[in-house]
Amino acid sequence: MQTLDPELQQRAAHIKLLILDVDGVLTDGRIFIRDNGEEIKSFHTLDGHGLKMLQASGVQTAVITGRDAPSVSIRVKQLGINYYFKGISDKRAAYEELRAQVGVEEAECAFVGDDVVDLPVMVRCGLPVAVPDAHWFTLQHAAYITKQAGGAGAVREVCDLIMRAKGTLGAALNEYIK
After folding, report:
1. What is the pLDDT of residue 3?
2. DSSP-based three-state secondary structure for 64
3. DSSP assignment, residue 40?
4. Phi and psi at residue 130, in whole multiples of 5°?
5. Count of CB atoms within 10 A of residue 113's CB?
6. Which residue of 47, 66, 97, 128 is most buried, as measured by CB atoms within 10 A?
């Protein structure tokens, strides 16, 4: 495991709330639509378990997404995500509302996004993260770009990064080899 850049380490160590976009972050960005209009999305189990470990370490989690798909509501509930904002056209307003509900400063928030609609939050939070296949303009505003793609372990990578910076990752992982 390589050493973290000191600035990234400092930013990640202060995170109390991880906020996620869905399409392109928790999923690979593709939306399958059945003939009856039902949307089908694919989620990665590594991301799910990473979120559970992060929550157990004391970091709260949230989703702010522009879409309103029943499958996402189900996945959010399965993962015990603390806050869920769906069908949001103004992510900045949702972010401000979320911060007020949680009682955290901007420096204590991380956001993972993939497109320009995520920038109103990314440019304000303490740790803006993008997936590698994000829009080029979004990538320019990320303090960290994941190695894993959206829907393929990118969120787990961010969970591990935050826990590592906070000094909680090793203990959490060692629980599995006792």
Report:
1. 78
2. strand
3. E
4. -130, 155
5. 29
6. 47
The token pair that represents 111 in the structure block: 């956001």
Is 83 strand, coil or helix?
A: strand
Dihedral in degrees, nearest 10, Cα atoms 142, 145, 149, 150? -30
Going by C-alpha positions, the residue among 19, 18, 31 that lies closest to residue 162 is 18
Q: Residue 29: its pLDDT value, please?
A: 93
| pLDDT attached to residue 4 | 80
High-pLDDT (> 90) share of the chain, %: 93
Residues 81/51, Cβ–Cβ less than 8 Å: yes
Would the pTM count as exceeding 0.85?
yes
- Tell me the pairing of strands 39-40 and 32-33: antiparallel
> Which DSSP helix (H) or strand (E) runs through 79?
helix 70-79
Which two three-digit tokens encode residue 90? 């103004």
Residue that has been written with the tokens 């400063």 in this structure: 105
Positions of the chain with pLDDT lower than 50, given as ranges? none
- Tokens for 91? 């992510």
Integer Cα distance of 10 and 4 in angstroms: 9
- Number of Cβ within a 10 Å radius of residue 152: 19
Structure tokens at 59: 């970091």
φ/ψ of 176, rounded to 5, equals: -85, -10
